[in-house]
Design goal:
Blueprint: H1 9-17, E1 38-42, E2 45-46, E3 50-57, E4 60-67, E5 72-75, E6 83-87, E7 90-92, E8 95-97, E9 101-105, E10 109-117
Antiparallel strand pairs: 1-2, 1-5, 3-4, 4-10, 5-9, 6-7, 6-10, 8-9
């Protein structure tokens, strides 16, 4: 690597993409026990339900959820008061879940959930 400082960015990139690199090895781990982004719970227990993400953008999320009576959607997204939420077209509020995530009450059967992030400083 004595000529490393003379190489162009393209040459350096080709070197790394060829599988060669110097320094400590890089490891990527997958946590297979991590919670999903969205899940359905009833009485603090995960239940089987169908969740389908229709749209996922940083400021707008659309979800279809099939749930039983008394269920709620857990969104592993930070709770902020600027999230506007509607379930089946009706405005609703999210509760905090474990102090940081969002808990949204669902109706029995099919639910169309819309989350929109609308802070007061957002212009468009």
């Amino acid at each position: 690597m004595k000529d490393w400082d003379r190489w162009t960015k393209v040459e350096k990139l080709k070197f790394f993409l060829s599988g060669k690199y110097y320094g400590a090895p890089l490891y990527v781990y997958e946590n297979q026990k991590a919670l999903p982004r969205f899940r359905i719970e009833n009485d603090d227990k995960e239940i089987s339900g169908t969740i389908r993400t229709i749209l996922y953008k940083p400021d707008k999320i659309e979800i279809d959820a099939l749930a039983s009576k008394g269920s709620y959607l857990i969104a592993a997204i930070n709770y902020y008061p600027f999230w506007e939420i509607s379930v089946n077209g009706k405005a609703t509020a999210a509760d905090k879940y474990f102090g940081t995530f969002m808990k949204i009450n669902l109706e029995e059967e099919n639910n169309s959930v819309l989350l929109e992030y609308r802070p007061p400083y957002k212009l468009f």
